[in-house]
């Protein structure tokens, strides 16, 4: 036989002597396989392999399918739902009567057992109760218990209505036939349909009175274009058959009357359906909203439970509900919790920071006492002139390392040794942080102060309150570092206002104790410069009334004089020191203060804000001015003490 010229020849080659293989028969697969054998001395025996059976191709029809569809394992919820079928039917029907339509139709996709149960005639009570609970229209009179499911599906199934003719569930336009009470897709309606004009051509010899006995489908878009009223072929054939079956005129008349009554009832059902459908959609939206709210509340409860499991108290969860990113209708899983855990803990820690400033009981109170004791020990190694510029203990709470320990969960045990590792054992690092804090604040203060000196703001304010009487008069302001032998952070005319609480600080040094004075302030970062330079007309006026130069007067100079001023603009009588006048003055009004000459500054100053400069007797708690002067006389023998050499103001404003 001559091989095909375009087809390669298959050459079968047996085993060679060089490979030393032998062919063995695989009994399991009934094929020959080569097998290695040990080389023997002498010439190898030639073994003829058995003849190979030619492969025969099976016809295409005999081939099995390449791959069958892989069946998926039912999930845990499906297995749990399948246990419902073991319950008695009366109890099961009672349970199913309370389920919404969407759930009932979803149950039919769980298993064949549910589908057979819900589509059976015995389950008509479920669909009747469902229809009545939503005040849905009644079905046609010819529909019995076996058709209640079909009518309920026509009313309530929103997932993908089946066409009763072809069974299609594609998202094509479907129409509800109110005579037969079933959904029909556009394809089944248009296929073989006729218009009033084409009726005579297709059904020759039939009277047009047949069309009066047919349901009309209005505004169906035809392929040829335009919207026309059409009649279905199946309906026409059915009516013609019924008319032909009538024996006499009386039967025809009776059939026509019954048919017309049925069409009227179908029109009534259509009107009732169109009126009921919007109400049903409103019910669906309401149920959907309630379901979403339930899921949101459940998600928030799960988040709070996980936070409580981490050891945080309920007081730290008050701000979680204000976060909109958690208020989503999705159940909380382990994966979703890991994705939002950092954000949740950030909100919890911010809440704990706010509680830390005013909570002095419980775990916070104990931890605060540890820091306060260590901080007092730290400040005791410096003189009062130095530590009065240190930040308040509330500001120390905001240092990152200390704050992490303070805000640790309640269940985590924190001792004084943990804080001592940061403050006492690492004294040099902590002191470096304090000095960097002071240097950073002074740099920001110079920037704020210098900006107002360049645009002549201070001279304008002085003219407004009468310190300067003409445009030619002016104060020669110097930059803070140009002032001789004075800490510019102690300048009397330089006030700072907090961005967060809008409170005013009389000096830059007083701003370091701002958290100690205003617990409700929103400043939650020790390294954050939360102040702006706020030139005060009140400060300029009281400094001028005291007889000092506003350009060089320091806060110590004003404290040493101890003058009292009376406000003439207040409805109620107000008398206070220069610091009290600045902090209480409304910046939107022109200040009107009067110097009181007959007030004794030492006797009448009741502020517990003074400390001895020669020792640390008032390190923990400051005293009134008169008490500190007596201490200087008894402990140090100072007869005429000076500010700030012998004693100083160490208050927080």
TrEMBL record:
It comes from the Eukaryota. Residues 1-76 are annotated as: Disordered. Residues 81-130 form the F-box domain. This is F-box domain-containing protein. The lineage of its organism: Eukaryota, Fungi, Dikarya, Basidiomycota, Agaricomycotina. It comes from Moniliophthora roreri (strain MCA 2997) (Cocoa frosty pod rot fungus). Residues 1-10, 52-72 have a biased composition (Basic residues).
């Amino acid at each position: 036989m001559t091989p095909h010229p375009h087809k390669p020849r298959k050459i079968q080659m047996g085993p060679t002597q060089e490979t030393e293989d032998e062919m063995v028969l695989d009994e399991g697969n009934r094929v020959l396989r080569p097998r290695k054998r040990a080389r023997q001395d002498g010439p190898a025996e030639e073994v003829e392999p058995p003849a190979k059976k030619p492969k025969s191709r099976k016809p295409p029809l005999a081939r099995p399918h390449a791959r069958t569809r892989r069946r998926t394992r039912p999930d845990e919820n499906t297995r749990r739902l399948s246990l419902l079928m073991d319950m008695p039917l009366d109890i099961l029907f009672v349970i199913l009567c309370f389920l919404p339509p969407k759930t009932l139709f979803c149950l039919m996709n769980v298993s064949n057992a549910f589908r057979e149960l819900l589509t059976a005639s015995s389950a008509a009570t479920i669909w009747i109760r469902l229809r009545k609970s939503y005040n849905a229209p009644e079905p046609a009179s010819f529909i019995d218990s076996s058709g209640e499911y079909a009518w309920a599906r026509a009313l309530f199934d929103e997932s993908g209505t089946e066409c009763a003719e072809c069974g299609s569930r594609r998202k094509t336009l479907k129409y509800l036939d109110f005579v037969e009470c079933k959904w029909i897709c556009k394809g089944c309606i248009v296929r073989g349909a006729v218009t009033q004009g084409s009726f005579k051509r297709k059904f020759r010899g039939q009277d047009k009175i047949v069309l009066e006995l047919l349901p009309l489908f209005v505004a169906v878009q035809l392929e040829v274009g335009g919207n026309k009223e059409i009649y279905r072929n199946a309906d026409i054939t059915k009516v013609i058959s019924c008319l032909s079956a009538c024996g006499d005129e009386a039967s025809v008349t009776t059939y026509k009357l019954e048919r017309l009554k049925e069409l009227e009832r179908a029109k009534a059902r259509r009107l009732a359906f169109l009126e009921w459908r919007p109400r049903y959609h409103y019910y669906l939206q309401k149920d959907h909203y309630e379901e979403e709210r339930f899921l949101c509340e459940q998600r928030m409860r799960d988040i709070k439970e996980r936070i409580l499991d981490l050891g945080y108290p309920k007081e730290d969860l008050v701000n979680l509900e204000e976060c909109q990113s958690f208020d989503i209708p999705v159940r909380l899983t382990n994966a979703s919790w890991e994705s939002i855990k950092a954000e949740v803990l950030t909100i919890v820690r911010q809440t704990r920071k706010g509680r830390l400033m005013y909570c002095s009981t419980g775990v916070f109170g104990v931890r605060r006492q540890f820091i306060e004791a260590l901080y007092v020990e730290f400040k005791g190694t410096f003189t009062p002139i130095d530590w009065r510029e240190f930040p308040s203990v509330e500001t120390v709470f905001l240092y990152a390392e200390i704050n992490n320990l303070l805000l640790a969960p309640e269940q985590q045990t924190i001792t004084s040794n943990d804080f001592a590792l940061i403050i006492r054992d690492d004294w040099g690092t902590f002191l470096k942080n304090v000095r960097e804090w002071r240097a950073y604040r002074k740099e920001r203060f110079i920037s704020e102060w210098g900006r107002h000196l360049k645009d002549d703001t201070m001279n304008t304010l002085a003219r407004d309150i009468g310190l300067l009487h003409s445009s030619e008069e002016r104060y020669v302001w110097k930059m803070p570092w140009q002032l001789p032998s004075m800490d510019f952070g102690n300048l009397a005319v330089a006030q700072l206002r907090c961005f967060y609480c809008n409170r005013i600080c009389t000096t830059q040094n007083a701003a370091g104790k701002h958290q100690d004075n205003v617990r409700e302030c929103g400043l939650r970062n020790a390294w954050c410069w939360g102040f702006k330079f706020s030139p005060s007309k009140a400060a300029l006026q009281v400094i001028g009334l005291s007889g000092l130069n506003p350009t060089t007067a320091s806060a110590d100079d004003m404290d040493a004089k101890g003058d009292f001023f009376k406000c003439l603009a207040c409805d109620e009588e107000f008398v206070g020191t220069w610091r009290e006048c600045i902090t209480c003055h409304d910046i939107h009004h022109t200040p009107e203060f009067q110097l009181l000459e007959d007030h004794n500054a030492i006797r009448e100053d009741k502020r517990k804000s003074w400390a001895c400069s020669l020792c640390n007797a008032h390190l923990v708690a400051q005293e009134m001015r008169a008490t500190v002067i007596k201490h200087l006389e008894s402990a140090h023998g100072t007869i005429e003490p000076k500010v700030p050499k012998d004693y100083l103001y160490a208050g927080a404003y």
